[in-house]
Amino acid sequence: MAGGFIDRSQETSGSYPLEKLLKSRKPLREEVDFAKEGRLPPHAVEVEQEVLGCILLDGPSIEEVIKIFGADADKVFYEPKHAIIFRAMCRLYNRRDPIDIVSVSDELKRHEELDKVGGYYAIAELSNKVATAANVGYYAKLVKEKYLYRRLISLATHITSAAYEQSLEVFDLIEHAAQEIFKISQTGIKKDAVPIKDLLKQATKVIEELQSRKSAVTGVPSGFADLDRLTAGFQKSDMIVVAARPSTGKTALALAFARHAAVEAKVPVLFFSLEMAELQLAQRLLCAEAMVDSNLVRTGRISSQEMVHIMARMDRLAQAPIYIDDTPSISIIELSAKARRMKHEHNIGMVIVDYLQLITPVKDGKSNREQEIAQISRSLKSLAKELNIPVIALAQLNRAIEQRGADRKPQLSDLRESGSIEQDADVVMFLSRPELYGVQNFADGLSTKDIIVIDIGKQRNGPIGEVRLKFLKQFGKFESLSSVYTAADFSVQDEQRSAKAAERFEREMTPPMPNTLNPDDAPF
């Protein structure tokens, strides 16, 4: 520590992640040198004393303080000696030892820190600051608030300094600022455990709502009846991975999902395209909608009648709430920030990312590629939970599938660069086109021509299975082999299942009748 600065390079929590910023000309600091400006940072030393005093009066109250302070814990205190005392209290708490004047003083003495905080007298004085520990939560929140103000001032100062020095690329600096602001905003977000009885009430309500629905699709519909029979649509808070080798039809299928959700189901969709330009995607959507050969459109060889057809379909597609972002090499921080903003401004109901491995991770200079992909995968799953919407992430499969000979059915182990994708995903769909590998017929004898197979290799809350779609490549369009979309599709199966359930319920709930017959009284 020098000149009131604390070197952040030694910290692991809350550190600045950008490698360039870590290598900038001036080291990053936790606190600004306010003395040079003639003013002190936001703080409340007396309230800090009251927090420590409450803990001395009532040792178990430290649990509420730890919950409010979170991972930052002793960094929250402005006064260094208060941080030392709080660390001693935490050590006692972790050992399940009592926390009082005597035990805290003894703990500080054993670590040769008692004199640093002012001796026994200083500890005793803290206990006299409050008469009751009832307000410990209120005091702790005030202390945390001042700490967050200091973090904001510190961050703003360093961003200002870096901007004046122009030591970073401007967009790196903007990304860093957004990332650190988001970290600070998340510092105070804590979630308590919920009693099971409250969750059961919510679960029962959801079940009743689902039961009353006429449609068997409970999530965002995919547009393909066969697929929705297995998944019941794309569910809220789910991360769905659609994986395939290049040129299999991932983007075309993702656009089909987006088109059906927005045009038919009226669900706003945000589409992040890291591989194709936004205009190319718009053309693909239009060709699929108008059933016009995309190659003819690309070469300008369409007829006047086809042009009329395109214009007629354009009006319908233009009304669809589809938002396309083609920012190249977008970072996971920027992607998440944009999704949050679009959720707030347009109430998006689904996010599609094409594709996962092209997202730029947060660089720390230490992670390998697999760890970077794991970070991106976890972030996308967290985004799905936070916004309570399905997030569909396209992903590349590795080349291992090409070396299997005739059996080239994708497997979970084929997910490229990270097993964490499999772990984080709620649903994993593999796309394959057997005809590309010389397979002319499926095992059931049906032709593989123009057929794409969607193999659900993982579904956390549902069955796995295989779906076949007709791929009209010239239009970039898919057709379901079973196109009827009604709950009646499930009626016979549901009746059989309901009958079995009723029989089992009656059997379990009806107590057995006592046998009053003597074995010797048998009638025969």
Automatic annotation (TrEMBL):
Task: Say yes or no: keyword ATP-binding present.
Answer: yes
Kindly state one GO CC term assigned in the UniProt record: primosome complex
Family statement drawn from the similarity comment of this UniProt entry: Belongs to the helicase family. DnaB subfamily.
Q: Which NCBIfam families match?
A: DnaB
State any single GO MF term.
5'-3' DNA helicase activity
Q: What is this protein called?
A: Replicative DNA helicase
Q: Which UniProt keywords are present, listed alphabetically?
A: ATP-binding, DNA replication, DNA-binding, Helicase, Hydrolase, Isomerase, Nucleotide-binding, Primosome
The record's catalysed reaction(s) read: ATP + H2O = ADP + phosphate + H(+)
Q: Where is this region: Disordered?
A: 496-524
Name of the gene this protein is made from: dnaB
Q: Which residues form the SF4 helicase domain?
A: 213-485
EC annotation? 5.6.2.3
User: Alphabetically, which GO biological process terms does the record hold?
Assistant: DNA replication, synthesis of primer
Function, as annotated = The main replicative DNA helicase, it participates in initiation and elongation during chromosome replication. Travels ahead of the DNA replisome, separating dsDNA into templates for DNA synthesis. A processive ATP-dependent 5'-3' DNA helicase it has DNA-dependent ATPase activity.
From start to end residue, where is composition biased (Basic and acidic residues)?
496-509
Specify the species.
Candidatus Thermochlorobacter aerophilus
